[in-house]
Input
Amino acid sequence: MAQENDVIGLHFLELWRFNSKAAAAAATATTSTSSSSKEDAEFEEEPTELDTFNSSGMFSVVLSDKLSVQYPTVNLHGHDVGVVQANKPAPLKRLVYYFEIFVKNAGAKGQIAIGFTASGFKMRRQPGWESNSYGYHGDDGLLYRGPGKGETFGPTYTTGDTVGGGINYSAQEFFFTKNGKVVGTVAKDVKGPLFPTVAVHSQNEEVTVNFGKDPFVFDLKAFEAEERRKQQMTIDKISISQNASYEIIRSYLQYYGYEETLKQFDMASRSTVPPIALGQENGSSDTEITYAMNHRKTLRQLIRSGEIDDAFDKLRMWYPQIVQDNKSAMCFLLHCQKFIELVRIGKLEEAVVFGRTEFEKFYRLTEVDDLVKDCAALLAYEQPLKSSVGYLLEDSQREIVADAVNSMILSTNPNIADARVCLHSCLERLLRQLTACFLEKRSLNGDQGEAFYLGRLL
Amino acid sequence: MSLLWFVLGQLAEIESMGSSKKIITKEEWEKKLNDVKIRKEDMNKLVMNFLVTEGYVDAAEKFRKESGTEPDIDLATITDRMAVKKAVQCGNVEDAIEKVNDLNPEILDTNPQLFFHLQQQRLIELIRNGKVAEALEFAQEELAPRGEENQSFLEELERTVSLLAFEDVNNCPVAELLDISQRLKTASEVNAAILTSQSHEKDPKLPSLLKMLIWAQNQLDEKAAYPRINDISTATLEDPGV
Output
């Protein structure tokens, strides 16, 4: 079989493998706490407690909960600050990082500070007194950043107050809050990891830190939503051609062979006021993409309803070149699906017989042995749907096979020189570009900020 | 001569310092693109969202069957919403108001601006049809009291009524009110209000994603030269310009 066609088959095997890995990861992550499991694939460690090793020793005492700090002795010298950093730097790959402290006791002088410091910070100094550190101080309400005087910033704070410090990665600024309200922001002109930091500086001062284990006093969700809204407003100012969306939807329907939808869509588009002029300039690409539309639609329907034998028959009749090489990735996908469908309807014995004859020849292809194993594993479970290979019984697996056949048929179009153009719809290419731009932008920005994840917007 | 070469050399140096942009070749970029996995299911949702929000009810119904994607709203409500929209687009504003109230009387009760705009559109249609007496009566009885409540309503009312003062309305300073675009504006305002009342977003997501793509590319332009997509409708990768 032509090598170029395997580009397509292998691409869809890769998609399958992606689903397989996601399913395996979900199965092992039984203790998944957050609701956002799939998109948070880029897990980052975050501060959970105070660092008990690297602290200012006798000038501060971190209590056994590792979330409270006390200043025990009489302060003798201006330098004798009790500073404690978090055990981990603030995570970067998000819109905002935030933590809070509660002032249990403002002590003799209330010289408490909250802020962020770089990793080599001198542990006898208030955050903000040294370069690469920022601190909002309780006794004067000033903001300190590097050597020099503090700047007018916010109110003072004392016993009973909750004070928060945050990094807004999108605006590249720090912000501080008092009792749930933002008191001020300051530009973040430092690179590299930053540790949430608290300091106590006079007798009996005591604060407890909340790294997010308990709900914050400050409404972080609302703050993030507002940040996103601001960004969206800038984006909304960009103008695009009104027809762009229509054309992209249309080519999506054409690409995947959603023929009935397309018919209705075109009919409705023609009767809208004002009517939408579609695809007139690029009529040529239009015919390419409507290529074999009806065949593609039929095959998708067959595969989506699990009728793999029928799909095979039709392919042999209409596009023998696609199924001619029995060892191709495409045939592998179809055979696996046939096996899966047998398991689905409970014909296990038939599945075993079919699997033995069919998988035999693929098992030697080392690149697919993991996928063969997944299929075979279906037989091991009484309730395969609930097992770690249960994903095979979901619609998404049929979809992969249907999409693979669709792409294969598109590539039989003699006008198409490179099979790779048949791999993605226009919409998918745009979304891939969008995601890649966000990732690249972030990586050029010291990994700061959140990535684009389509699923979150839906 | 030597001075010239010196200056040119300096300039070249300055230029190379300025363009500290990272250069990403097409090959490297394609590798990055291949690492991006977009779920088919999510794309289907995006398409369904567009069909539903823009009111392609028949297409949405077919798409549900062909792709197995569930719409995020009861499809029956689209038909009603589109009927209202169509009524405004065709100038049957009274009919539209009645239909909105059948759908959910709260929509107009809680949205005085929308109600005013619909009434204004009704006035425009009366003027368009040459029903001068009826238009005046309607303006005085229905619209003027609302204008008293709100300064911007009053200004709008005055602007609309001034259509009556011109012989050739198609060439007067407020001719745009008679334009089809005014109907479309009002229609899309009603459409948005109905969607909001159904706790659905009023705009489809796809256009804003396309804008986001342009924005993200512009942002990345500042730091890197990479293959862009300039033509959204074909989504072809350009060669990276340096």
Remarks:
- Chain B touches chain A through 59 residues (CB under 8 Å).
- The radius of gyration of chain B is 27 Å.
- DSSP finds twelve helices and two strands in chain B.
- Residues 12-17 of chain B have pLDDT under 50 and may be disordered.
